[in-house]
Write a structure and sequence with these properties.
The protein is α/β, with parallel strands linked by helices. It has helices at 10-21, 32-41, 80-86, 130-134, 176-187, 198-219, 223-227, 230-249, 258-266, 274-281, 287-301, 306-321, and strands spanning 3-6, 26-29, 43-47, 50-54, 57-59, 68-73, 91-100, 140-153, 156-168, 191-194. The protein has 12 helices and 10 strands.
């Protein structure tokens, strides 16, 4: 396959190394120090002290690559509009765009999903509809990553834990192309599952990280300290209950309680969330995709969400003060 990683950060790099080890010739669109490092040293994945290095064809201009069979978009949500503006040369009639990002994506209410809201464009994640226009729904396969990775430096990814990937068509159909991707990622050594409704998997992951991520960014605390404060935990649980009801209004039933999810988070120990890492590195934060979109869906479904409003307001002011939003 002609495979391109657009966004060779932590998750994109992790996926890219796996695909390259499976024998795929890897193209990468990158810029700045990452582009220079990839062209000079290739792409590296660190597991403990063990380094796996793979060669890549790294370019700054997607037009140098032309049409691809598979494009993996693995950027943070604030960078997506820029990707959409430049991705055109990579897309042929049958190109698959696997979206491996956190939060509510622009295609969330497509494929007939969402009940009365099916087909609605979410202004918080695609204000002008430019992303949907640049990456039409027919190209999209959704992805939910269950792996923790970070960057040691440009082109050097560190894998911490987790090896999971859930993929699915927005329509929920088990198409030939999504089965082809399932086989590809399985062969690449990633524990991949096919979802009958990928939006539900997106929402369930969001249900945990829409709270802990911004709270960690606000407090500067790792997850062990957040989970150890009963007042903060009560606030987080209240936000989660609001999101649980919003999800139920669009067809997503969550049977877990907030306490069930807290038990999973506690197992991470002193873990720094991706949003806290972004704040510390001075990078734009994913508030719109993680919290703003939930608030918008709450307004659309008429679910009161005062705790979600408070979380978004606090995190948004902090991010603006730091120049990260």
């Amino acid at each position: 396959m002609r495979v391109c990683i657009y966004g060779a950060g932590a998750i994109g790099g992790w996926i890219g190394v796996a695909l390259a080890q499976a024998g795929e010739r890897l193209n990468v669109v990158a810029r700045g120090a990452t582009l220079e490092a990839l062209q000079r040293d290739g792409l590296s994945l660190m597991r403990g002290d063990v380094r796996t290095r793979v060669p890549v064809n790294a370019v700054a201009d997607p037009a140098e690559l032309g049409e691809q069979d598979l494009v993996v978009v693995a950027v943070k949500a604030p960078a997506l509009a820029g990707v959409a503006a430049r991705i055109g040369p990579l897309l042929g009639p049958d190109t698959i765009v696997l979206v491996a990002m956190n939060g509510v994506p622009w295609w969330f209410l497509q494929g007939g999903f969402g009940g009365a809201l099916a087909g609605t464009r979410l202004a918080t994640v695609d204000p002008e509809g430019a992303i949907a226009a640049a990456i039409p729904d027919r190209h999209v396969i959704g992805g939910v990553v269950h792996a923790s990775c970070s960057l040691d430096g440009p082109g050097v990814v560190r894998h911490h834990f987790g090896n999971g990937l859930i993929i699915g068509e927005p329509s929920g159909e088990a198409t030939a192309r999504v089965k082809q991707l399932l086989a590809l990622f399985t062969r690449a050594g990633i524990d991949t599952k096919l979802s009958a409704q990928i939006q539900k998997d997106v929402w369930f992951k969001l249900w945990g990280n829409m709270t802990v991520n911004p709270v960690s960014a606000l407090t500067g605390a790792a997850t062990d300290r957040i989970m150890g404060d009963e007042l903060l935990l009560g606030f987080i649980s209240a936000v989660m209950l609001e999101a649980k009801e919003i999800g139920a209004r669009i067809g997503i039933t969550i049977t877990d309680s907030p306490e069930d999810r807290h038990a999973v988070t506690r197992k991470l120990g002193a873990f720094k969330t991706s949003m806290l890492q972004d704040v510390e590195a001075g990078r734009a934060v994913e508030l719109d995709a993680l919290v703003g979109a939930v608030r918008e869906l709450g307004q659309l479904t008429k679910v009161p969400a005062p705790f979600t409003d408070a979380l978004l307001g606090l995190a948004r002011v902090q991010a603006r003060q730091l120049g990260l939003y």
